[in-house]
Write a structure and sequence with these properties.
Elements (H helix, E strand, L loop, with lengths): L8 E3 L7 H6 L4 E4 L15 H12 L3 E5 L4 H11 L4 E3 L8 H10 L6 E5 L2 H11 L2 E5 L8 H19 L11
Parallel strand pairs: 1-6, 2-3, 2-5, 3-4, 5-6
């Protein structure tokens, strides 16, 4: 059971990920959360660092698709601010598999070539592990969260504790 909450790669910040790293792990598609993964939930547009990170992935042939539980207006505004003509799936209902399955069907991707980058064990990592994707957990960009995310963080704390005592993962003990 804890295996579903355990990321394959645990990083302190999104830009640790490089195209070379992804390709070395057979990844050609990066599903990417937005809120508290790339920017704080209350920041509408990507900053220059986020844009450069996403551009480097795209230039290297990594297909980036945004997958967010947030509303369409928020996600669309962010994605348009990237200037990359990237696809996006708002209101994804992570960790449920419906959106992930739709993405696989829409593009014909093999799940072994897909990675999910996100900041939450309870949504991003659980759902993507359930689908058999490569999972990358990043520390949250900021400590402030939306109200419903705060509830997830309470459960997440308990899961982090269990992961720690079983020797699977220690919060703040990053791979890179």
């Amino acid at each position: 059971m804890l295996k579903l909450f355990t990321p394959k790669y645990y990083i302190h910040r999104y830009d640790v990920i490089t195209p070379e790293y992804l390709k070395a792990h057979g990844i050609s598609v990066l599903l990417c959360d937005i809120d508290n993964t790339l920017v704080a939930h209350d920041i509408a547009l990507p900053d220059e660092q986020v844009i450069m990170f996403l551009k480097s992935l795209k230039e290297a042939g990594i297909h980036v698709i945004f997958v967010s539980n947030n509303v369409e207006e928020r996600v669309k505004t962010f994605v348009e601010g990237c200037g990359l003509q990237a696809e996006f799936y708002p209101f994804a209902m992570k960790p449920l598999s419906k959106t992930y399955r739709k993405i696989l069907k829409d593009y014909g991707f093999d799940r072994k070539q897909v990675a999910m980058l996100g900041d939450q064990l309870m949504t991003d990592i659980l759902g993507a592990n359930w689908m058999g994707f490569y999972t990358i957990l990043t520390a949250p960009v900021v400590q402030r969260d939306l109200s419903f995310t705060k509830v997830n963080r309470l459960f997440e704390s308990a899961v982090f504790y269990l992961l720690k005592v079983t020797g699977k993962l220690k919060k703040g003990d990053y791979d890179a």
